[in-house]
Inverse folding.
């Protein structure tokens, strides 16, 4: 089995693949200092809860946008699973073609998203939307060339900014309120958060389509922790909640030659 670990700014998202199928997935907060032992205990307990034996984990793949946690994750893999993990990053083999001089425009998580989306919709122009701590948008040509994208504050980050910056506002449940005309402060916050995120996604996608595809057809792929909020809003042709883990699996397989178990 393959253990995939996506380290984001808010959460660590872990998935266990048995062949091409995800046998289990689980999350924990990534904020603050996290030791390799804390991560090891968390993963072992989660595996046990899902009836997966640690000895069945033969490979581990890591995508991280939090450099301070990457070393802890790597040490966890070696100490608790006796596996030298694959770490997505600069220099790895990928199907994504990034124009020379623009490689810094993509983090490991976005490369994973694109890798998976290209496999999911081969030969198609793509706009990939990942709703997490930040909302990221990537435009990719049908031949796999990265054409550019955008980054915006995620809905959770926007809520925290309002709660921390305005004395009379506080955190609310993040959900679709069903209407923009809220009658309570909480409902109005929910409306503002939900519909501003939706409106921004529509505007950015429309502009990416015009700038990058110039009238050509494209497929929009949605993913991310908050992506499900917008699943029924008509902005995705495809919703793939485990896109980053699937892409990480593909990258690990592409780069597997020469990797040895410790």
């Amino acid at each position: 089995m393959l253990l995939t670990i996506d380290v984001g700014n808010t959460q660590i998202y872990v998935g266990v693949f048995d062949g091409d199928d995800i046998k289990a997935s689980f999350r924990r907060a990534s904020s603050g200092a996290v030791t390799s032992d804390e991560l090891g205990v968390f993963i072992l307990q989660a595996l046990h809860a899902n009836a997966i034996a640690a000895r069945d984990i033969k490979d581990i793949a890591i995508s991280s946008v939090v450099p301070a946690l990457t070393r802890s994750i790597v040490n966890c893999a070696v100490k608790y699973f006796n596996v030298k993990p694959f770490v997505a990053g600069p220099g790895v083999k990928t199907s994504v073609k990034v124009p020379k001089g623009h490689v810094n425009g993509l983090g490991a998580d976005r490369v994973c998203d694109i890798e998976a989306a290209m496999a999911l919709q081969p030969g198609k122009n793509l706009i990939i939307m990942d709703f997490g701590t930040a909302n990221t948008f990537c435009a990719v040509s049908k031949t796999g060339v990265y054409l550019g994208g955008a980054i915006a504050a995620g809905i959770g980050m926007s809520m925290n900014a309002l709660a921390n910056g305005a004395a009379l506002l506080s955190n609310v449940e993040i959900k679709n309120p069903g209407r923009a005309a809220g009658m309570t402060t909480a409902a109005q916050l929910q409306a503002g958060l939900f519909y501003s995120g939706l409106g921004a996604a529509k505007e950015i996608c429309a502009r990416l389509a015009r700038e990058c595809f110039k009238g050509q057809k494209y497929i929009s792929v949605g993913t991310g922790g908050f992506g499900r909020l917008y699943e029924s809003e008509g902005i995705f042709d495809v919703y793939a909640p485990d896109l980053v883990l699937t892409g990480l699996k593909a990258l690990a397989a592409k780069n597997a030659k020469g990797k040895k178990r410790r």
